[in-house]
TrEMBL record:
Organism classification: Eukaryota, Metazoa, Chordata, Craniata, Vertebrata
Pfam families linked: Fra10Ac1
Name recorded for this polypeptide: F10C1 protein
PANTHER family in the cross-refs: ACID PHOSPHATASE-RELATED, PROTEIN FRA10AC1
Molecular function GO labels: phosphatase activity
Compositional bias ranges of the Basic residues kind: 1-11
Sequence segments annotated as region (Disordered): 1-41
Organism: Denticeps clupeoides (denticle herring)
């Protein structure tokens, strides 16, 4: 005997309850709850390092910053490829371009330039004394180092103005010591005689940096140059 079947309404909709009823209808359409669940499942399955499926368009500021960085890299590479003088010319040219002016404004004055030889001449001492070494500046130290390298036994003489009773003396340098100039060759700087040399000790009076000084100097001269040395003391 067949049993009687009792039908009840579910959710008042007159249909049957099902886990899949929200995702897909009878006509194959997906419900809103199913879309939401599918998105949640996709987020759960997505790996932390996985990129999004849809590429985002960069903001114009990001693109502008990247362009500036690329331009800076190019400029830096260009400067590295230059030598020091080329970079100097570029920087000077850029300065004039941006701030105005002309090249002459940037040139350093060379009116007061001095070489080491100029410094030695200005601070030279024929004989250094203890008081000369007080308050030493770098110029004086340079002149003193030069003086210490000289050979202070025999002098080299300039006798060109002997008739005026004016003589110039200096100490020998290394090349003259090696060649024997002033000892085995005549001590007159323009004479190369080797025969009949005589030794003279002269009281050399001179003025140096506004101060009168005197020193005994030794000379080795040939007969002609000895005559010039003693021209006023015959």
């Amino acid at each position: 005997k067949p049993r009687n079947l009792h039908f009840h309404k579910v959710h008042g909709g007159g249909g049957y309850d099902s886990d899949f009823s929200d995702e897909e209808g009878q006509d194959g359409s997906v419900g809103s709850h199913g879309v939401k669940r599918a998105r949640e499942d996709q987020l759960l399955l997505q790996k932390p390092f996985q990129k999004g499926t849809r590429a985002k368009v960069a903001h114009r500021d990001v693109a502008s910053q990247e362009l500036d960085r690329e331009e800076a890299r190019n400029r830096r590479q260009h400067l590295i490829s230059m030598n020091a003088f080329e970079r100097h010319k570029k920087f000077v040219g850029d300065y004039i371009l941006y701030y105005g002016g002309k090249m002459d404004d940037l040139r350093r004055s060379t009116a007061k330039d001095k070489t080491d030889l100029d410094v030695v001449r200005e601070n030279h001492r024929f004989l250094w004394r203890d008081e000369d070494e007080e308050d030493m500046t770098w110029e004086k130290e340079l002149a003193k180092r030069y003086y210490d390298k000289l050979f202070k036994e025999y002098c080299i003489a300039d006798l060109n103005r002997y008739k005026e009773n004016k003589f110039g003396f200096r100490w020998r340098i290394e090349n003259e010591v090696v060649s024997g100039k002033g000892q085995f060759l005549c001590g007159n700087k323009r004479c190369e005689m080797q025969e009949s040399l005589k030794s003279w000790e002269v009281n050399f009076a001179y003025v140096e940096h506004g101060e009168k000084r005197n020193a005994l100097v030794k000379l080795r001269l040939c007969p002609d140059c000895s005559f010039k040395l003693n021209y006023h003391h015959k």
